[in-house]
Amino acid sequence: MISKPIILFLIIISLFGCVKGKYYLEYPELRIEGQKSNQYIVNRTTDYDIGYQDGCIKGAQISLNIKKLSKDSIVGLVLDSRSKSPLPFSKVRIYFFKNEQTDTLHLTTNFKGKFSCKTQVIPDRIEVEYVGYRTLNIDLMDY
Questions:
Q1: 29: phi then psi, degrees, rounded to nearest 5
Q2: I want to staple 63 with a disulfide (CB 3.0 to 4.6 A). Which of 5, 29, 123, 134 is the partner?
Q3: CA proximity to 82, closest of 39, 29, 135, 15
Q4: Beta-bridge partners for 101
Q5: pTM above the 0.70 mark?
Q6: CATH number of the domain that 91 lies in?
Q7: Contact, 18 vs 46, CB < 8 A?
Q8: What pLDDT, in 10s, does the model give residues 11-39?
Q9: For residue 59, what are the domain limits?
């Protein structure tokens, strides 16, 4: 049986590690054609599905730099939010909503974290996934 002082000590250590930088507060970032566009990120808080914003990162965050966004193509770069390093072989899903029907493009970034594809309209939603990272959801319906 673990004594109460040991339990208290473990709780304090875990909280202290969170506050002092063992985990750090970071947010995803979205840039569209060079402009910060974070307003399109869905659920940008660092809540991690525990019901409240705890400020401690349990997994890293993804940032997305969309170099070109037009009705005929999209070109982007997937990055680690903290280090700004490319995330190779990330999963990118691009959604198009039309008349209660959803068309989805499934892409994978290259070794340098880049992706591109031809489109017929500007996408409505983009999701980016990478192992060990929180999924990035971008809502472009009002873009």
A1: -135, 140
A2: 29
A3: 29
A4: 98
A5: yes
A6: 2.60.40
A7: no
A8: 665 555 554 444 455 678 999 999 999 89
A9: 25-139
Distance of CA 105 to the CA centre of its chain: 18
Secondary structure letter of residue 38 according to DSSP: G
Q: How far apart are CA 40 and CA 60, in angstroms?
A: 19
Whole-angstrom Cα distance, residue 59 to residue 81? 11
Between strands 136-139 and 35-36, the pairing is unpaired
Tokens 């974290």 sit on residue? 113
Q: Which residues pair with 62 in a beta bridge?
A: 80
**CB 137, CB 87: distance < 8 Å:** no
Length in residues, the chain: 143
Is residue 124, in this structure, part of any structural domain at all? yes
> Does residue 18 sit within a domain?
no
- Is residue 96 scored above 90 in pLDDT? yes
Do residues 27 and 53 make contact, with C-beta atoms less than 8 angstroms apart? Answer: no
Alpha helices in the chain (DSSP H): 4-19
Query: Which amino acid would we find at residue 121?
Result: V
Q: Are strands 30-32 and 62-69 parallel, antiparallel or unpaired?
A: parallel
The average confidence (pLDDT) of the chain is 83
